[in-house]
Amino acid sequence: MNQQLRNLMTSDVYTVSETQSVQEAAAIMSEYNIGSLPVVNNNGEMVGIITDRDITLRSTAQGEAAETNVSEVMTDRQVVQGSPDMNVEEAAQLMSQQQIRRLPVVENGQVVGMVALGDIAVDSQYNDEAEEALSSISTPSAPQK
To answer: What tens digit of pLDDT does each residue of 102-131 get?
Structure first.
């Protein structure tokens, strides 16, 4: 059975504006116990994603102020995303290839959901796909020369 992401995704997604501060993003992550937030522009379109790791490595470790805009530390190039109509196997494969644990689900430029590797693993019919994706994500890549 080819289940679509719309049936598995979390549709109550917290986002952050590209003009909000890193401190505000971190506070949202802390309050809701989440590790990443889709970043949206004034039209609500996804323009990037910010993770707790982005904040740590690109802001805190660099001595940046807490008032630094999210847009300065977010990942904005080739943000990996899924669509509500994508099937779960495709999503698991994409997450494995891109070595990501969370996949924003976007429709018409708007964030409509989020799928975590754990969501896929919970559905027992996709246990193998989730295990394979996690194995790929957790295995360090060979150093690039």
So the answer is: 999 999 989 999 998 888 876 645 556 556
70 and 50 in contact (C-beta within 8 Å)?
A: yes
Q: What does pTM read for this prediction?
A: 0.78
Instruction: Give residues with Cβ within 8 angstroms of 139, minimum separation 6.
Output: none
∠ CA(20), CA(73), CA(18), 5° rounding?
30
As a whole number, the mean pLDDT across the chain is: 84
What are the sequence ranges of the domains in the chain? 5-138
Write the burial class of residue 62 (CB in 10 Å: 0-12 exposed, 13-18 middle, 19+ buried).
exposed
Q: How many CB atoms lie within 10 A of CB 42?
A: 9
Q: Please, are residues 85 and 73 in contact by the beta-carbon 8 Å criterion?
A: no
What lies within 8 Å, CB to CB, of 83 at 6+ separation is: 5, 105, 106, 107
The CATH superfamily of 5-138 is: CBS-domain (3.10.580.10)
Residue in 26, 31, 78 with CA at minimum distance from that of residue 53? 26
Provide the 10 A C-beta neighbour count for residue 21.
Answer: 18
